[in-house]
Structures are given as structure tokens and as C-alpha cells.
Design a protein that fits this description.
This protein is an alpha+beta fold. It folds into 3 domains: 252 residues, no CATH class; 81 residues, Signal transduction histidine kinase, dimerisation/phosphotransfer (DHp) domain (Helix Hairpins), CATH 1.10.287.130; 141 residues, Heat Shock Protein 90. Helices cover 47% and strands 18% of the residues. The protein has 11 helices and 13 strands. The strands form 3 sheets. The chain has a 6-stranded antiparallel sheet. Strands 8-10-11-13-12 form a 5-stranded mixed sheet. A two-stranded antiparallel sheet has the order 7-9. β1 and β2 form a beta hairpin. The longest helix is centred in the middle third of the chain and has 53 residues. About 10% of the residues have low confidence.
């Protein structure tokens, strides 16, 4: 289970589902609050219109039994006087809780039992306190939260309606049915009856029903939507990651079989997965080339080492059997050749391992050329004058000295009589040119001679022990130092090797 949920596909699915769930929760809450606020605002408007309609009639002195809106089934209306006595109300209105008083009509308007004292509720006759279920004389809010008693009825002139409308929630019982209402209270001064307060309530049944319906739809629809999001994300992610799994499977097969010639499949897309596949194949190709190069290197090194070792062994065996026939100079020559070959192979191994120049070290190519030319009578060193000296380069003195030594050895083997080393500055580079007066290098072979263990046919006949590693080592060192090593023909037809290194 941990492995399944640790996959990219599972994490993507869980993440997408969580984000959508949070978004749906926020959106659902906002919708419910907005819906409730909108419906409550509509109820406020309906209740206020009813209250002000009745208040306008009372301001004109309309009798209580002639008031309109008292027979509206959708709204309840209650009119109370300054003492909190109900003087008019919607037909069959039994009780209002949470807003307005819960008192009977005045005796002259209701025709109640004369024995009942004015201001006594039917509930009081049964031993009930009207204030217990939220009704408070004078319109003061009950426990359920209703209307504030901030009326300005005493300040109103006869026939004047108060500007302020007070709102609150409550419930009303009409003909035995209790429902929730949104109440509005408006003060008015009847020209004959004095200050009155009109309480009008608009039913909240539509609001409650709409909110319940929306909540039910969300409770049912949101889980289904989340399930759809999770399923689609799972399928889309699986489809998107399928090429990655194919790449992984092929790489595992390549590793198990050690077949570097195989390649991973590349999808016909232009996305990150396709670029990953192409990069993987490029890496496999480079690895195959490196392994093949290493294999050839080992094979060629074994071949090159076999000849001097066999020759040295033969001479030593002859010397043991016939001391007088021992060729000491030949044995020494084979030993020196073997030593040089071992040193070349060791240097190539270090270069292949990534060995580079020592940081901060500086070398003067002109001085280095003079040092390497010392003891070589056929070599002439020329330092071309310019605006400034050729300058110094950053790198290893030993490795750069090996480059010049290899170039001079190569020129010595192919030159007829003279070798010239020229050191000059060209822009931000120091250029070292080694030229000979030999036959030069054919254009077709000018890159091949820098490969390891490669010797041209004429070089094989005139070779004095070289293994074909000198020029390969020289180019590798030049590249490691940020430079280049190329060959071209001199004006006289010989070979000219050009080494370019950046100055510091």
C-alpha cells in the first residue's frame, strides 16, 4: 500500500482530488451563504413592504377591520399599541415568538370573554407566561433574536410613519401551524389612536427549502464530482506516465543484458517525456561509444605491450642460455620503449578519469618551448614580437610540456632536416606552432592521426618505437586545458601542428 501511494500517479491523484475538494467546499459555502443572504434580503423586502403598507393605512386613520394585508396567507401582520396590546393581526394568528408581542387583541376588537382581564393572554389563563417563548410586549426581541426596541413612536407626529425599519427572525403560529418568518417592524402614529407599531413577517419556508435543496445537491454531487476528478486524474496520469514506465522497463532490460546497442522507445510527442527518452538514448550512445573505445584501448594496449615484452623476454632467455649472445643495448631499448608505453597508458587513464589542470597554476608557453627544444639541434624556437609578450596560460606544466614533447618527437620522426616552433599571441589566445619540412599529413588523415594507436603507413616503416599514442595524448591534454590542437600543411609542404590555449 505504501508503495502504491508512493507513486507519482497516486500522489498526483490525491493532490488533484484534495485541491478540488477544498475548492468545492469553499465554493459550496460561498453559494449557500450567498443564497441564504439573497433569500433573506427578499424576505426583508417583502416584510418591509407589508409593514409599511399597513403603516400607511394606519397613518390615514383606517379602522383596524379595514386594513389590507391581514388576510394574506404568505405574510403575518400584527399591530400593537404603545402599551404593547395587540390591536389588530392577521386572521387566525395565534402566537408570534422571537419578534413582537404575544398578547391578545383588545376586547373591543376581538370580542373575547369579558371576564378575561385586558392584557391577559390565553396562554396566561392556562398558567403560561407569554414571555417564556420569546414574546415580549412592545416588540422587544425574545430569546431567539428578534427586533430591538429602538422605536421612535413618541417622537412621531400624527399621521407620520417612522423612517427606520427593524428586522429580525422569529416564528408565528397561524391556525395551528408554526413556521419561521422574517419580521420587519415599522412605527406609525395614528391620528386618533396614537403611537402604534406594525410587525409584518414574510415566510422563510422558501429560503429554508432552497438552502436544504442546495445542501442536498452538494452533499450528493460533490462526492460524485470528486470521484470523477480522481478517476480522470488517475487515467490521465497513467497515460502520461506510460512512456516513462516503458523507458524504465527497457533500461532495466538493457542493464540486465548489458546490451548497450539497444535504445529506449521515443514517444511521438514534443513534451518532457520525449525529451527524456531522447536524452536517455543519447546517454546510451555515449556510453556505448565510451565502452567500445575502452575495449579497443585495452585490446590495442595489450597488443602494443606484447611486442616489447616478448622481445625483452627472448633476449633475456638467450642471455641466460648463451651469455655471450646477450644484446644488452637491445634489451635496454625494449625496456625504455616499454617504460614509455606504460607512462603513456597511465596518462591516458588519468585523462579518461577526468584529471584536469591544477587550479591557479600558470605556465609560460614560450619558456616551456625553449626548455623542450633544448638538446634538439634541429629545432628552432621563434617567439614573434607583438604589442605584448605571448603571455601565460592556466594549466599543468607537466602535461603541457608533454604535449610539446610529443609534437617535437612526431616532427623529428617526419622532418627531413629542420623543425620550427613558433610562439605568438592571437587575441586572447597563445598559439604554439610546430612545423617540419617533411611530406606533411594527407588531408584525409588529419583527424584520424589523433586517434589512439593510429599510425600512418609511412610512419610504421620509420617508427622508432612509437605506439601511436603521442598525438592522441596531446589533443586530450589540449582539450582539458580549454584549447585546441589541429594540423595543416605548411607553405613548403610539411606538417604544421597548431596548439591554441586561452591566456589568463
Amino acid at each position: 500500500m505504501r508503495r502504491r501511494f508512493g507513486s507519482v500517479r497516486a500522489r498526483a491523484t490525491l493532490g488533484a482530488t484534495f485541491v478540488v475538494a477544498v475548492a468545492l467546499l469553499a465554493a459550496g459555502t460561498a453559494v449557500l451563504l450567498s443564497l441564504r443572504s439573497s433569500l433573506t434580503g427578499q424576505a426583508d423586502g417583502q416584510a418591509e413592504r407589508s409593514a409599511r403598507t399597513v403603516a400607511a393605512q394606519l397613518a390615514l386613520g383606517t379602522p383596524y377591520d379595514k386594513l389590507s394585508s391581514l388576510d394574506d396567507d404568505e405574510r403575518v401582520v400584527q399591530v400593537v399599541d404603545a402599551s404593547g396590546v395587540q390591536v389588530a393581526a392577521t386572521e387566525d394568528l395565534e402566537r408570534i415568538s422571537g419578534a413582537g408581542p404575544s398578547v391578545p387583541r383588545a376586547q373591543e376588537d376581538t370580542g373575547d370573554d369579558p371576564s378575561q382581564e385586558p392584557g391577559q393572554d390565553a396562554g396566561e389563563e392556562a398558567g403560561e407566561d407569554p414571555g417564556e417563548d420569546g414574546g415580549v410586549a412592545g416588540g422587544v426581541a425574545g430569546a431567539s433574536g428578534g427586533l430591538d426596541d429602538d422605536s421612535d413612536e413618541d417622537a412621531l407626529e400624527p399621521g407620520e410613519i417612522g423612517d427606520e425599519t427593524r428586522f429580525g427572525d422569529g416564528s408565528a403560529t397561524v391556525d395551528g401551524d408554526t413556521a419561521d418568518y422574517r419580521f420587519a417592524a415599522v412605527d406609525v402614529r395614528d391620528p386618533k389612536k396614537g403611537p402604534l407599531t406594525v410587525y409584518a413577517g414574510a415566510s422563510l419556508a422558501a429560503e429554508r427549502s432552497a438552502v436544504r435543496t442546495a445542501l442536498t445537491v452538494m452533499l450528493i454531487g460533490f462526492p460524485l464530482l470528486l470521484a470523477v476528478v480522481a478517476g480522470v486524474t488517475w487515467l490521465v496520469t497513467r497515460r502520461a506516465l506510460r512512456p516513462v514506465e516503458d523507458i524504465r522497463r527497457e533500461m532495466a532490460a538493457i542493464t540486465a543484458a548489458a546490451e548497450l546497442t539497444r535504445r529506449v522507445p521515443e514517444p511521438d510527442t514534443h513534451d518532457e517525456v520525449a525529451r527524456l527518452a531522447r536524452t536517455t538514448n543519447e546517454t546510451l550512445a555515449a556510453l556505448e561509444t565510451s565502452v567500445e573505445r575502452q575495449r579497443r584501448f585495452v585490446a590495442d594496449a595489450s597488443h602494443e605491450l606484447r611486442s616489447p615484452i616478448a622481445s625483452l623476454r627472448t633476449q633475456l632467455e638467450v642471455g641466460v642460455a648463451h651469455p655471450g649472445l646477450l644484446d644488452v643495448p637491445g634489451a635496454v631499448e625494449d625496456t625504455v620503449r616499454l617504460q614509455r608505453l606504460a607512462a603513456d597508458l597511465l596518462l591516458l587513464a588519468r585523462l579518461d578519469a577526468g584529471e584536469g589542470p591544477v587550479a591557479g597554476a600558470r605556465v609560460d608557453p614560450a619558456a616551456l618551448a625553449r626548455e623542450e627544444a633544448a638538446g634538439r639541434p634541429e629545432v628552432t624556437v621563434v617567439v614573434e614580437p607583438g604589442e605584448s609578450a605571448p603571455g601565460e596560460v592556466a594549466g599543468s606544466r607537466g602535461q603541457l610540456g608533454r604535449v610539446l614533447a610529443n609534437l617535437l618527437d612526431n616532427a623529428h620522426r617526419h622532418a627531413r632536416s629542420a623543425v620550427t616552433v613558433t610562439v605568438r599571441r592571437a587575441g586572447g589566445q597563445v598559439v604554439v606552432e610546430v612545423a617540419d619540412d617533411g611530406d606533411g599529413v594527407p588531408e584525409a588523415d588529419r583527424e584520424r592521426i589523433f586517434e589512439r594507436f593510429v599510425r600512418l603507413d609511412d610512419a610504421r616503416g620509420r617508427d622508432d618505437g612509437g605506439a601511436g599514442l603521442g598525438l592522441a595524448i596531446a589533443r586530450d591534454v589540449a582539450v582539458r586545458h580549454g584549447g585546441t590542437l589541429t594540423v595543416r600543411r605548411t607553405p613548403t609542404g610539411g606538417a604544421l601542428f597548431e596548439l591554441r590555449l586561452p591566456t589568463v
